[in-house]
Amino acid sequence: WAMYEPGGLLAEQCLANMKVACVVGRTVFVHAGLTADHVRKYGGIEGMNSQVKDWILNSRHDEHNPEGTYRTVDEVVRSAQNRAQAISGNMPECLGGGNSGGTPSPVWMRDYSQPSDGPPKNPVAGTMMDECLEEISGRIVSAANGANGDGDANERGVRRMVMGHTPQRRINAALNGKAIRVDVGASSGVMGGTPEVLEIIHRGDGDEDVVNILTVGGERIPLADRQVLDVGIPIEQLL
Fold first, then answer.
1. Helix H segments across the chain?
2. Beta bridge partners of 103
3. Nearest residue to 229 (alpha-carbon basis) of 184, 176, 178
């Protein structure tokens, strides 16, 4: 814990550049999910990442600190627990499990990914996704073209969100391909699932991206073949 806690020995080297979310091309990547409320409330993706980096780099232990002489293992554990409790009280809201606009944080929400391998049970998940992608796209266009936001949001904006957090039997897409769920629970401590890789090929501003799933068996499966329908059945099972 002393290595990786905020302000810890390896916090800057190992954790300071980790992102809550990031945009690459036309895709936004996030641990669990994003909503338009998240983006507005936390100052955009840049704001979230900045808040978390500041939290990681700065020690806020109050009277608890990792220095001192410990006589037993129990004292070491108790000290770490006290520091964890003190640090958690200062954790940015975008990392917490608390609600934001009725939806849990970007590292805890499951509105787009639950139930596993099926369409989201939240009846407004599609609207939430569309509003979020529009909000992010608008900010990208505004940043690229000035305060007036003149430009083509379709070309410069985001079209899909890639997320983990909720294990799936295999990589799949919901909400017309806008929600891509990539957590296959590969760890033996989760599901012992079979690893898969998401491949996104950006062919240029005038062309559509090519999105595939790479399997350990050497297959390259178009993401369209892993779309889940309203009844929760992947398309390829119906062909």
1. 11-15, 36-41, 44-57, 73-88, 125-145, 153-156
2. 100
3. 176
- Strand, coil or helix: what is 82? helix
What three-state secondary structure class fits 37?
helix
pLDDT at 149 over 70: no
Task: Find out whether 1 and 80 touch, Cβ atoms under 8 Å.
Answer: yes
3-state SS class at 181: strand
Whether a cis peptide bond, with omega within 30° of 0, leads into 115 is yes
Tens of pLDDT, residues 64-105: 566 667 788 888 888 888 877 777 778 888 988 654 445 689
Q: Would you state the torsion angle of the CA atoms of residues 132, 138, 141, 145, taken in this order, to the nearest 10 degrees?
A: -160
Mean pLDDT of 119-147: 91
Distance CA 36, CA 133 (A): 8
Q: Using the 8-state DSSP alphabet, how is residue 95 labeled? A: G
3-state DSSP assignment of residue 90:
coil
Q: For the chain, how big is the Rg over CA atoms in Å?
A: 20
Rounded distance between C-alpha atoms, residue 111 and residue 89, angstroms: 26
φ/ψ of 163, rounded to 5, equals: -140, 160
Strands 21-24 and 27-30: antiparallel
195/210 Cα distance (integer angstroms) = 20
